[in-house]
Amino acid sequence: MKPSCLFTLFTLLCITASAQIDQELLRKPTEDTSGLQLNMDAVYNRPFRQAGKLPVALGGYVEANYQYLRENGISEGHQFQMRRLTLFTSSSIAKRIKFLSEIEFEDGTKEINIEFASVDFEFAPLLNFRGGVVMNPIGAFNQNHDGPKWEFVDRPISATQMLPATWSNVGFGLFGKKYSNNWVYAYETYLTNGFDESIIANEENKTFLPAAKENKDRFEESSNGSPLFTGKVAMRNKKIGEIGLSYMGGVYNKYKEDGLVLDKKRRLNVYAIDFNTTLPKVKTYINGEWAWINVDIPENYTEQFGRNQQGGFIDFVQPIIKKPMLGYENAVLNAAVRFEYVDWNNDHFKSTGGKISDHVFSVVPAISWRPIPQTVIRFNYRYNWQTDLLGNPPSKLAGVQVGISTYF
User: Fold this and answer.
1) CA–CA distance, 58 with 50 (Å, rounded to integer)
2) Residue numbers of the domain that contains 280
3) Which residues form the signal peptide (predicted)?
4) For residue range 262-304, what is the model confidence (pLDDT) as tens digits?
5) How many domains does the chain have?
6) To which H or E segment does residue 11 belong?
């Protein structure tokens, strides 16, 4: 089926369901169902500052941390890092025309990226148009990734080393949502520039989707002329929680040049499910995401390049103390833990039938303190077990991480 047909079909289907939730500690409780925040709202659901009647609002967040990690008994010592500084600019151009940009400076100024820069045209609750640099809505973390919203110093491994975290492209699409009693439904669907052959031709020597982020040309041209389709539907109940289903797929290789056929069209398909909820009595916040990746690998590539990948994470965050502390009226102390797993090659060796073992498992217990909802101080202990392609005894990494993150 052509991408344009998929785009139309998915848009019609999307109108029947969708939605997302932000972490309860980062929003004010409300009885008005129309005030429910979704993952698709994350780009605008931020503490912007506006001076007087100026048409432009500004905001941003910062992340910095310290870590001491040891891998197989070897350490690089004490490390201080300036992970990222992100700036937001928002403007209401007219009554139903909005613009927002998100520019991120990573590792000092080692990387400078435009993560979002689009114009929204609002026509009806279920029909809105967005164009520019859009954040592809695969899973939940890719859109709702701001550091102050999380109790953990590191971003999830599945979101950064399997999926390309903060993956954005130039393109156009539709989005909308509908409220019904305690339910809210939403959808997003986009056609954008997409991946290239770097996902299998990279320094990692394996199938590695994040390598495509190095191609800055994707903001001005497609590597093969075929659009990447991304779509998501989700639904949320005010009392139960939210579930989202998303898909991203398209041709990644350069199959034709100047009319000459070089190869068949090779597709990349990504499927993801995400869920989050807050248990009503104990106020435990649960947030998880799982994704499956399928890549059509050329026959002349070895088995170390995975045709199938899968992975995800689940977070548990438990408020322990909520009371004035150290002069802060609404301070909260949380205990949290993250479990995460990634299998970069979910397949078997053809010669032996044995399982290919290129995977990692991680546990991260944490304590976090929020003097205000928009600011967090995080204490993490990370423990990773990573197994190589042949299933040798795992490489073990462990250590302490301390970080701060805040909106401003």
Assistant:
1) 6
2) 3-407
3) 1-19
4) 999 999 999 999 999 999 999 999 999 999 999 999 999 999 9
5) 1
6) helix 3-14
